Amino acid sequence: MVKRTSQQRYIDLIKQTFYFDTPDFTVSNDELNFYGVELMPLIEQYGTPLRLTYLPKISENIRRARSHFGEAMKKLNYDAEYVYCYCTKSSHFSFIMEEVLKTGAHLETSSTFDIAIIKKLHQKELLSKDKYIVCNGFKRETYTNEIKSLWQDGFQNCIAVLDNRKEITAYENLDIEKMQIGLRIATEEEPNFSFYTSRLGIRYNDVVDFYKKHVATNPKFKLSLLHFFVNSGIRDTVYFWSEFNKFVRAYCDLKKICPELHILDIGGGLPIKNSLGFEYDYEYMTEAIIANIQEVCEQEGVPVPTIFSEFGSFTVGESGAMIFSVMAQKQQNDRELWYMIDGSFITHLPDTWGMGYRFITMAINNWDKEYQQVHVGGITCDSMDYYDSESHVSKLMLPKFTRGTEQYVGFFHTGAYQESLGGYGGIQHCLIPNSQHVIINRDAQGNVTTKLFRKEQTAEQVLNILGY
Ligand SMILES: Cc1ncc(COP(=O)(O)O)c(C=O)c1O
C-alpha cells in the first residue's frame, strides 16, 4: 500500500499556498469555519444549497473604513469630515440595511424603489430625516418624483446627483426654498475599454459652464456635492490617480465660483478579498487619497472638502457565502473531472458567469483528504455554467472523495450584488430555484445565532411568476 504523505492532503495544499488560518477562515477537525462559525453543523441543520449572511462583518467593515479615513485625516491635519454612505444596490435586504444603519451610516441610492425602502426605514424609526441620501443614477420620472417627495417630507440632506444636464428641470417646480443637488462627473475609462468616456455623469468640460448657466442663476438650487466613480475601483494605478487628480482639480475649479460646494464624493470601489492571497494596503490608499486632495486644494487655494464614500462591495461583500454539495463526479475524459453541484452559477453567483469574477473557494469538509484538480459544474444546460479557477491560479483544487461520502464546497465573500443580479426570488435559467438563505449573528455574549430568512423557492412561486 502506498503511504499517503502530508503534501497530498488538501489542508497542506492550502496551508503551503497561503498564510492560513486567516482572521476569516480557520479549520478544526478538518472542517472549515467562517468567522469562527462552524459550517458543517449549519449544513446539517439547513441542507444545501445554502446562502449565508454573517451580519457582524458589515458593521466591522464600516468601522474599519471610518478608522482608516479618520487616522489618515488626523495624521495629515485634514480639517474636514469623512462621511460613510452605503451603496444600497449592493444588497437591499432589510437585515443588511438595518445593520448598516445601526452604525450611523448614510445612504446612496440608484433607482425609484430605493426611495420606497428609505420611507419604510423611516417609518420603522431606523432612519432619521437628517441622514444624507445621495441619489445617483440616470433617473426616470418616477425616481425624480420620489426624490421630490423626500424633500417635501423634510429630508433636507437628500442630494439629487445630476447625471445629465436635463435632469435639473425635473426639480424646478419643487415647492421648497432650497434644494441640495450634486453633479456627477463622467470619468474617462481605462485605455483597454471599448469606449473612452463613461456614459454616466456630465463631461468634465461642461461642468463649470453648466453650473454657471443652470445652477448659479437659479436660487432654488444649492450645489453641495461633486461626485466621481471609477469603474475599475480604488486601485494604486496610474489610471486611477490620473482620473482622481482631474476630479479634485474640477472640484477646486467649481469651488472657486460656488462657495456652497463642500462635499467631494469619491464613489465606491474599495476592493475586498477575492482570494486567500489578496493583498491591499487600505491604510496606504486612504492616506494617499486624503494627501492627494489636501495637496491639490492647497495648490489651488481652496479649503479641503468633506469626503463622502459610497462603498457597496466593501460594506457587504465579505459578509456573504454560498455553499453547495457535490452531487456527483463525472470524468468526461482522461484529464477533466467534474464536480456537479446542486445549484447554478447563473442563479446563485452570477458574477462568476457574467464577468468571470472569482470568489474565495474552498472545501467545507474533508480537509484531511488528498486533493485533485476539478471543474465545478452548475446544473443548468448553459455550457458556461461552470467554475474552474481561482484568482491567483488557473486551476481549482478540491478534496478527493468517494461514493457514499459527502463533499461540500463554499464560495466566500459573495455578499454584494449576487442576489439582485441573479434575480433572487424571480425566475432563473432552467428554473433552478433560489436557495434558502440563513442569517448568522452573534449576541452580546458572542454566542452565534442563526435564523432562516428564506426557504428555497418552490415550484408554486415560480409557476405563479410564469402565469400558471
Ligand atoms: C455610483 C456608484 N457608487 C457606488 C458604487 C459601489 O461600488 P462598489 O460596490 O464597488 O463599492 C457603484 C457601483 O456600481 C456606483 O455605480
UniProtKB/TrEMBL annotation:
Pfam families: Orn_Arg_deC_N. GO terms for biological process: L-arginine catabolic process; spermidine biosynthetic process. Signal peptide: none annotated. It comes from the Bacteria. One of its GO terms (molecular function) is arginine decarboxylase activity. Residues 71-316 form the Orn/DAP/Arg decarboxylase 2 N-terminal domain. Keywords: Pyridoxal phosphate. Its cofactor is pyridoxal 5'-phosphate. InterPro entries: Ala_racemase/Decarboxylase_C, Arg_decrbxlase, De-COase2_N, PLP-binding_barrel. This is Diaminopimelate decarboxylase.
